[in-house]
Input
Amino acid sequence: MKTVDTYNFAGKKALVRVDFNVPLDKEYNITDDTRIKATIPTVLKIVNDGGSAILMSHLGRPKGGPEEKYSLKHILPALKEAFGRDVKFADDCIGQSATDLAASLQPGEILLLENLRFYKEEEKGDVAFAEKLAKLGDVWVNDAFGTAHRAHASTAVMGQFFEDRVAGYVMNAELANAKKILEEAERPFTAIMGGAKISDKILIIEKLLDTVDNLIIGGGMTYTFTKALGGQIGKSLLEADKQELALELLKKAEAKGVKIYMPVDNLCADDFSNDANRQIVPTGQIPDGWEGLDIGPDTIELFKEVVLKSKTILWNGPMGVFEFENFAHGTNAIAEAVVKATEENGAFSLIGGGDSASAVNQAGYGDRVSYVSTGGGALLEYMEGKVLPGVAALE
Output
């Protein structure tokens, strides 16, 4: 696989697939710029070599055609600040404006194309659409690990139109850090799995049971385990059809000698809101009309103890509804423990994208763990052993 380090971009127009799918508020301000910052080294390497960069990305999920709220023009001020130079903008990703601006691009200049997903052909992996995009540049750089598990036109299909296919710094770092967890994990190795649904995490949990020493289960999916074990969960989140599976996973863990840690108490609310009434109850004793929205104080202490003894930590998914300040304590406490294990005990910690990355960055710990992945779904699929089309297209 060619990498940006080994490639000279002098005089080349690099067509760079980036992941600028960043969260925006109602005024179009970026609320988390992690993904933009991550691309700075790749883009600057291209322009400093004397090449020019044509950036292409998706944003959100447009319903089939241009939508103002999903226009990439909203992120231009952030890009200018990140790259320390003006960034030109094409109001289309193919068509005349894109062609003309790409053709007139000078060495050292940067052009951003409009949202790729304004064309349904992007997600369909349409070959003709990929070819139109490919005509804009001389070399294809894929730095969008977060979409590498999709066989879309810009993330995989267009690779066939280039002799030179290059992995960006983000792509490289993501693969290197995932391999470190999969192949070189120092023990004890602890995986922390949170989030809402078991169904989203079955494959990764099964895969991890072959490698981890400890598996901490938190977040909304714990209530399905609790219910399967005969506990009362009130109106907490439940995947009723996954209870059998939950029990199977526990049996498999036991058979493989993996220690499973689940909440011993929960912070409950009588409504799904930050201002709801709250009470702490032992796991399996949530009253009717109440729902678990975070792990309780005893669970926090239990989980922290396991994390602090670990030498390798993989974390994917929050411990509760961290978007509500009153139910973010569990997630923040785990983040603190992961930072402490990393900084004081020399543990290697990988935060697996998505909500976990947002939570860690929100708490201000992003630069105090070993690596924060930019791709939640892509990282999980890679660790499950699946072939990622965006990675295969570079090989």
About this structure: Residues 185-384 form a domain with the Rossmann fold fold (CATH 3.40.50.1260).
